[in-house]
Amino acid sequence: MSYPGVELFQTSAKGRGLKATRKFETGQAVLKQEPYAYAVMSSHIDVVCHYCLCAPGQPGAPVEDLHRCTGCKFAQYCTKECQKKAWPEHKQECAAIKRITPGKPVDQTRLVGRILWRRKREENLNGEKKDGKENDEKKVELVKIEELEDHLSKRNAEEKEAIDEKVYSFGDYFTYDEMPDSDEEMAHLFAIIDCNAIGLNDHRGVQTIGVGIYPGISMLNHDCSPNCVAMNNGPRLEVRALRVIQPGEELCISYIDSLETTEKRREKLKLQYYFDCECDTCTKGEELENLKHALVSEDIKEESVKYINQFSKDMLKRIHKTKQNQNWERMCNQTLGTLAQQDCVIADTNVLKIAMLNHAVEVQSFLRRQEPALEYAERVAAAYEKLLPPVHPTLGMYLMRLGVIQWQIQKTEAAVATLGRAASIISKTHGDDHGMFKELLGLIHQCKMEAHMSKGAQREFRMAKKKAGLKLPA
Ligand SMILES: [Zn+2]
Ligand SMILES: [Zn+2]
Ligand SMILES: [Zn+2]
């Protein structure tokens, strides 16, 4: 990864980091990087193309079905072209998977395998390069993969044992002959994957479908109110500016959900990334933090707050179970019952309230009660606008969802406006050539067409579309 405007530097308290050497406008791409290696998650091996990560049969996918690699019968591709492009990365993996069939390699094993095979290919290429041949796979990197942080020294005995276990079983897959000699080197690699691998989402940002390693982008430190966001477009990761960035500013992303309370964020960062966050939002972000605990009025008694907090937490657990059992009517009753009590005590920006409102939108949509779903979705969107900066992926994606609900109940003009706002945010957070942005443009176009039709014509149009098998957005 070499990119104009970014350089590696030594921070005062957070080790290495990346900083801007030029000005970036909001929404501008700061870095784009192809993965050093990536793998489809086990949960999605039969659903997405193992090369481009598209999901056949879904809107925006080039084809309806995947076809299997005849060698390992594990890898699947959307087109012959993807299969051909994947072959250099898959060739040795294909043999390794066959070797352990009917066993299936876990995600981390496949990822580490790909890293080691790529390293070997690069070593060979370097050898060839001396003979005057070109080498296009190896590009200049800001850092080498081995130089990434592994936090091994901060891990407890149990965590270390889990890593040793992975190293131990890796030999069956990779073959012991080819494995690096030292177990320390292997443990280092597995530990690097733990703290540096980045989850890759489907184009709607709903599900994590893959995992990749991006040595340059891994150098970005965390901030709870970051100036950048990293989004994947297929396997490629793109970092964009969430606000104007001046030369000399450190570039940061958020490793976790920014909507959580300070206590929760710091807890997660410590557990997963082994550091105590001392960012401005954690140390001085009182105003934002107060919103996340906000009450409906100042007169609410402390006992009422205590009661509703405990009650909400208990109900969230119960609703989670009801949801797992797919008992939607019951989930609806539990959610609305809790909301009725919450409404007397805590405000919509309170994290416990947002969680409940989100459940309400989900369950009402599922039960096809779009009118109440819309009412709750509008409240969530209003809360997000108070809690998030004006350009933020969560806000953009939520407005998209809100616009779709408005459209479904034929509030087409409102839908056009909401989807338009979503598009202006998503073009900045995801970029104009991202699948989500393209899908949004398609939605806006359809919506505008319907907005100009009479109600009767709209109904006919929808029925014709349904017959033709076109999918309405979820
Ligand atoms: Zn593909
Ligand atoms: Zn294969
Ligand atoms: Zn923080």
From TrEMBL:
Keyword Metal-binding attached: yes
Enzyme class: transferase
Catalytic reactions on record: L-lysyl(4)-[histone H3] + 3 S-adenosyl-L-methionine = N(6),N(6),N(6)-trimethyl-L-lysyl(4)-[histone H3] + 3 S-adenosyl-L-homocysteine + 3 H(+)
Enzyme Commission number, as recorded: 2.1.1.354
Occurrences of domain SET (ranges): 4-256
Provenance organism: Ciona intestinalis (Transparent sea squirt)
Organism placement in taxonomy: Eukaryota, Metazoa, Chordata, Tunicata, Ascidiacea
Protein name: [histone H3]-lysine(4) N-trimethyltransferase
A molecular-function term among this protein's GO annotations: zinc ion binding
